[in-house]
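S.,

As promised, the P-hydroxybenzoic acid run. Input:
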Amino acid sequence: MKVQVCIIGGGPSGLLLAQLLHRRGIATALLEKHPRAYVLARIRAGVLEHGFAALMREAGCGERMDREGEIHHGLLVAHDGRVDRIDLARLTGGSSVMVYGQTELTRDLYEARDRMGGITLHNAEDATPHDLTSDAPYVTWREGDTRHRIDCDYVIGADGFHGVCRPAIPRAVLREYERVYPFGWFGVLSRTRPVSPELIYVNHPRGFALCSLRSQVLSRYYLQVPLSDRVEEWSDDAFWTELRARLPAEVAARLETGPSIEKSIAPLRSFVAEPMRWGRLFLAGDAAHIVPPTGARGLNTAASDIYYLYHALADHYLKGDDAGLEGYSARALARVWKAQRFSWWLTMLLHRFPDSTEYDRRLQRTELEYLFSSENAQRALAENYVGLPF
Ligand code: RFL
Ligand code: PHB
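Predicted complex:
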């Protein structure tokens, strides 16, 4: 089989790029290691910046998102016994974010790809890119005992943090920057009415908490927990009791609880790999960079990679112009590092660090006091949260 672009990874990054390219007549194949049901059972992002939503529309996949997603014009921060609001719309001149689950968005992208008859290969084991510095790279994979091969012009590594594409770049070329945080987020999805119409980020002496949602009947809550905690050790009751203890009293009083539909613990990490291109391999999304979820930047940063890559490949195939491909890594990384900075800053501001000193805690409180006394500081938060320009 021969295609123009072979995409490894059927998460939102790979699917969105495949869809955008397909609409411009560029032939793609998409390889995903897992069955579709497995990919669609993962509960992850909930907040999309307007640039991501615009790309979904451009890919012809925005209809359900626009119908069922919620536009949020602000967010709340609970700290030191008070609740303050960041007015995203006022501070950014009218910008907002879209609350629409990654699971739903991924489903929309798969369905659109099916409708277009795009090549999607699930259960692709041992996907391996070859000859990446030649003019004729190819990808092999296995399905049971049968080995397959796809020839292509370009390989896209959209295979997430644990994928095979980043390690295909030689160690002598690749630079990795990493920070691992000493805690994780324990997430619970429940069929209950959300406690607040807007997201509440909570800084509490017992640890960070987040009240989020997927719809008016589906809530998503998170608690900061030690990395040693196991999901099986947490009963639903224990989760709700701990969440209540971290929320302001008036919010805790109206918290609706119910059985969890999904529970998982995710470690928090900041990570960047440079460069994002090697020969004819281009990395996109979590394959190249990870942020702690505090600033809701992960998927949104993948979106700018996809935007740059889509335009670069379209310019190559439709105009014979390779400037976008040549500049991809530097351009994508410039925005990636800004998302790193913001996610790190918000994580430091809102979490309890096990090794923090009295001085660190006093400084954190001062940072929060400053934030809510300075319109400029709030504007800096708001412009990053709704998404810096691509
Ligand atoms: P994904 O989603 O990891 O998809 C990669 C896909 O590649 C497949 N794969 C392979 N396929 C073939 N061969 C191989 N060898 C393969 N190895 C892996 C995998 O099965 C998978 O299907 O990466 P992608 O597409 O780059 O998307 C990135 C996002 O998933 C991620 O950045 C976000 O979920 C991060 N994130 C959030 N981002 C936001 O922008 N806003 C949010 O509100 C937000 N909340 C979150 C989050 C991430 C979280 N967790 C669990 C880390 C909340 C949480 C709790
Ligand atoms: C979510 O709803 O899953 C969510 C929302 C905001 C974040 C992280 C996760 O910052």
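Residues 170 and 278 are 9 Å apart (CA to CA). The mean pLDDT is 97.

- D.
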